[in-house]
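Researcher: Good morning. I'm working through a list of sequences from a screen, and I'd like to move beyond sequence-only analysis. For each chain I'm collecting a predicted structure so we can compare shapes side by side. This is the next one on the list. No need for commentary yet; just the structure.
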Amino acid sequence: MRLRRYAPSLRAVRDQAGAAAVEFAFIAPVLCLMLAAVIDLGNVLYVRFRLDSAVSAAGDYAMINAASVTSTGGATLASNAATIVEASQGASWADTTVVVNDGPTTTITSGVASASGTASAADSCYCPTYAAGTVTWGSATTCGASCASGATAGKYVTIKASHAYSPLFSSYGIVKSGAVSASATVRTQ
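Model: Good morning. Structure tokens for this chain:
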């Protein structure tokens, strides 16, 4: 008689034996997608941090070599700063543009460097303005003069770099037009 009382409950335990496996089968794909998204976001951030570090190193170089922001040294400064960004993670790692005071410019695209700009502009001072990631230099002015923004006119080096990246899921607000980008403007005087 006691066996009859416990028999239905044992049968219920046997019936639930595969429930955990079925539940795991439903949850596992969701967990895998979440893990893939976290890894993807981590990779995007890693590329962004490496790019920021490379641009920062080029900015440091520009600050240390501030005396080169001239018509005679500007092209070399631009070339060296662009090479610092380009070579920071290996050859042809990032596309880079360095502009020395609206004058000498070095652009490296897919490992190929090109120089442009007017060297004499590096001898002038400017009051640059910034809008939507674009620098507008304005006209040359006297060094130390007051700018419309309240700052004083000076000499600047702009550094822009981008690295092609295709995320698996989303741009996360970091990847724009298939690239991760970073930029800096350094006042050298």
